[in-house]
């Protein structure tokens, strides 16, 4: 018999409590690592995220003597079948905190128990498991700052120890092998950095030198000021506990940059906690007041044309278009730009946030239900700690402020490369600004801001 380690969002070897639990149970008999290509999860993921996943699986398998068994199908069928084939008594996993993952794991657990096999959950993708930190009266937090204080006071375990030196991976059953990158990924102009645990740790190490400037540079999309660890975290190539422990042990533990970075990691924990308590907030308005607001119809007329222009990065607003094109080529967008493009969809184009959230989930390599959908709700004015709806980002002045050199816009919008400096943010002000095919603005920001406020006033009263 072998013990099965069913991997999901934990594609690493270090700081991996579920792996240690599997290794301990297996003793000398070996651990069989399994990944299930689940159509329900692969369906909504676009080519960039799928390519990331496949590359991460290849990297993981290479670091485990090529032992990874990959099979496609419904998890309850595949996991049960593999457990039968190897005569496993337990299947070990890192607990999943999202609504789909929790329901799936209950189905798998029920299927396995029919064969007398147990599903053992050890650890989560978070430093503190979602649902753990609650108010004194036992109810969940709805505001970040008190959550963050309680989260800090609660404390989290140190990183888990390294896998035992005598850990043996076994590959006793057949699998399909990790698929190649999706065809759409290889055909189009899509790019990814290095993927996998080693790449994640390299990136983290290199980024620590830049933490001194993080507090200021993190607002600048034209600079490489943030860690870009989000997709590594999403797939569990590095655990946040590792980052927090390294941070605490470094000279950055007390610096502004170090503290701000820690706070960003707590935002990730907070949104996972919100989703844990309110799984409906992945789709529905967290604060229902705005659900009654009038929005445009994305299926016809202007609504349809506007949605398509936004998705393609052809709104005629340079900062918005640069972000939307970065999304399509790299699958990653700077946080400031995510906020501005999201605000533009909801408040300038009057389209519901869920349409944007879905497009982001398809294209983001770090697409994560809790961070994404609550990020969208925050911008749409309906989330926890939300920006009030009446605070509307100006897509031009945001660009001029956070991309003062215009370099970010020129990097992603070739039709504006002939405009120097800040001019790239306002081609309408320059003779020849449109000479290279850049589209005219699809809406007038000032007028749409008024329109958004009028629609808001109608639901407020
Ligand atoms: P850094 O600045 O280096 O931050 C370090 C880590 O902290 C990030 O990797 C991330 O795990 C976490 N973090 C930082 N900011 C946030 C935040 N606001 N909320 C939650 N966690 C945060 N993040 C995702 O990981 N997946 C998403 O699908 C996602 N969608 C978003 C959608 C919108 C509309 C908005 C406004 C934000 C979204 N974010 C999402 C949050 C944030 O934009 C990204 O985490 C960040 O840009 C990732 O880049 P980084 O790793 O360089 O961040």
UniProtKB/TrEMBL annotation:
Keywords: Chromophore, FAD, Flavoprotein, Lyase. Its cofactor is FAD. Residues 1-127 form the Photolyase/cryptochrome alpha/beta domain. Binds 1 FAD per subunit. PROSITE patterns: DNA_PHOTOLYASES_1_2, PHR_CRY_ALPHA_BETA. GO terms for molecular function: deoxyribodipyrimidine photo-lyase activity; DNA binding; FAD binding. Belongs to the DNA photolyase family. This is Deoxyribodipyrimidine photo-lyase. It comes from Quadrisphaera setariae.
């Amino acid at each position: 018999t072998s013990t099965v380690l069913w991997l999901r969002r934990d594609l690493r070897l270090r700081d991996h409590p579920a792996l240690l639990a599997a290794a301990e149970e297996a003793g000398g008999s070996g651990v069989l690592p399994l990944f299930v290509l689940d159509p329900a999860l692969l369906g909504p993921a676009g080519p960039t995220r799928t390519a990331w996943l496949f590359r991460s699986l290849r990297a993981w398998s290479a670091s485990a003597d090529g032992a990874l068994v990959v099979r496609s199908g419904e998890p309850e069928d595949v996991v049960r079948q593999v457990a039968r084939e190897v005569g496993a008594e337990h299947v070990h996993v890192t607990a999943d905190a999202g609504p789909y993952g929790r329901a799936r794991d209950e189905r798998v657990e029920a299927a396995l128990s029919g064969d007398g096999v147990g599903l053992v959950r050890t650890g989560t993708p978070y430093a503190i498991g979602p649902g753990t930190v609650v108010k004194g009266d036992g109810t969940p937090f709805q505001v970040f700052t008190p959550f963050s204080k309680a989260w800090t006071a609660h404390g989290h375990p140190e990183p888990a120890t390294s896998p035992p030196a005598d850990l043996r991976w076994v590959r006793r059953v057949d699998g399909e092998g990790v698929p190649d990158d999706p065809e759409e990924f290889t055909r189009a102009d899509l790019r990814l950095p290095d993927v996998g645990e080693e790449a994640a740790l390299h990136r983290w190490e290199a980024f620590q030198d830049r933490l001194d400037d993080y507090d200021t540079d993190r607002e600048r999309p034209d600079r490489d000021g943030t860690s870009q660890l989000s997709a590594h975290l999403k797939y569990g190539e590095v655990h946040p506990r590792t980052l927090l422990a390294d941070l605490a042990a470094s000279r950055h533990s007390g610096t502004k940059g170090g503290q701000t970075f820690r706070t960003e990691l707590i935002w990730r924990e907070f949104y996972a906690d919100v989703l844990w308590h309110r799984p409906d907030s992945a789709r529905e308005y967290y604060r229902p007041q705005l659900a009654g607001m009038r929005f445009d119809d994305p299926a016809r007329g202007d609504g349809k044309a506007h949605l398509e222009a936004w998705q393609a990065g052809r709104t005629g607003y340079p900062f918005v278009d640069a972000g939307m094109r970065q999304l399509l080529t790299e699958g990653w967008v700077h946080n400031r730009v995510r906020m501005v493009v999201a605000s533009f969809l909801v408040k300038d184009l009057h389209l519901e946030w869920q349409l944007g959230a879905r497009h982001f989930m398809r294209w983001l390599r770090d697409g994560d239900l809790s961070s994404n959908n609550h990020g969208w709700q925050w911008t749409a004015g309906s989330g926890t700690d939300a920006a009030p709806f009446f605070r509307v980002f100006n897509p031009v002045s945001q660009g001029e402020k956070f991309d003062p050199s215009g370099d970010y816009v020129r990097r992603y919008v070739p039709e504006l490369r002939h405009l120097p400096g800040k001019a790239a943010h306002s081609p309408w002000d320059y003779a020849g600004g449109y000479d290279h095919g850049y589209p005219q603005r699809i809406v007038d920001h000032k007028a749409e801001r008024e329109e958004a406020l009028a629609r808001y006033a109608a639901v407020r009263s």
